[in-house]
């Protein structure tokens, strides 16, 4: 099997710094789970770690690992649901020390590009919390409904949708 790696950007600050988005490798799991736990309990409820690990097992072909300076710093997943013709971006998170570098935008753009190209996808959906919904608003998502304490105490469910942009 050929693995395709996607170069996100190059920057030069004395030496070459670079970021890469690539398909998830099974060897990434330990580091991604550790990064996930660094975002707990602020952004995720501790019980969600099992859900994330299950996702990596079932949807590994559409999970992406983000590296910065050859170090795993985060990831994001995407998949299509035939039952409601939706495309979903999920489990997007980064090590707290690597936020604000534009990596979230780059990986989100990549996921949306893939979902917009999928002929079964007619709408895009994301489930997030009140702590991260503004990130998705930047990509045209709008709040459809919310549910208090859905993910855990103090972590509300925000269901957001947007239209597909097909070329």
What does it look like?
It contains four helices and eight strands, in the order ββααβββαβαββ. With 167 residues, it is α+β, with helices and mostly antiparallel strands. Strands 1-2-3-4-5-6-8-7 form an eight-stranded mixed sheet, with helices on both faces.
Key features?
globular; Aminopeptidase; alpha+beta; 167 residues; disordered N terminus; single chain; eight-stranded mixed β-sheet
Helix content: 10-25%
Reported for the largest beta sheet, the result is: 8 strands, mixed
Q: Report the uncertain regions.
A: 1-16
Strand content: 35-45%
Mean pLDDT value: 90
CATH class of the domain at 6-121: Alpha Beta
C-alpha geometry: globular
Distance between the termini: 29 Å
Do you know the CATH architecture of the domain at 6-121? 3-Layer(aba) Sandwich
Instruction: Write the element-wise H/E pattern from the N-terminal end onward.
Output: EEHHEEEHEHEE
What's the CATH H-level homologous superfamily of the domain at 6-121? Gcn5-related N-acetyltransferase (GNAT)
Tell me the radius of gyration.
16 Å
The assigned structural class equals alpha+beta
CATH-assigned fold name of the domain at 6-121: Aminopeptidase
**H/I helix tally:** 4
Strand runs, count: 8
- Spatial strand arrangement across the major sheet: 1-2-3-4-5-6-8-7
Give the gist of this structure:
The protein is an alpha+beta fold and 167 residues long. It is built from four helices and eight strands, in the order ββααβββαβαββ. Strand 7 and strand 8 form a beta hairpin.
